[in-house]
Amino acid sequence: MVTPRLAFINMAATLAYLGLAILGRGGFAGFFSHPALIALVIILFVLAGVGLFSGGNLSPGVREDRANRWIFIPFTLIALLAGYLPAYTDRKEFWTLDGDAIRWL
Description:
The protein has one domain (4-54, 70-104). The chain is built from 5 helices and no strands. The protein has helices at 4-25, 28-31, 35-52, 72-91, 100-104. 6% of the residues are buried.
């Protein structure tokens, strides 16, 4: 069941992740100057909305071991880098392949 709190957290997380990409690309003008990136934003929000109504659950039904919570730190760092670094390297033209053709692919 979708609660207002869950919808708010979903929207805030989606906007934060998009904000990392916009920051990495150099700002709103740099990010939204490419039609492929505008299409990506539309797809991102559609998938975030669809994700609210999916009935998926990753819980195996086993209680978690609290000693394993350290793993959230590296996963958080990897997620932050995954949101920022691709846009940054695209802006600096570092590790890019062919520009617009690859963006649309």
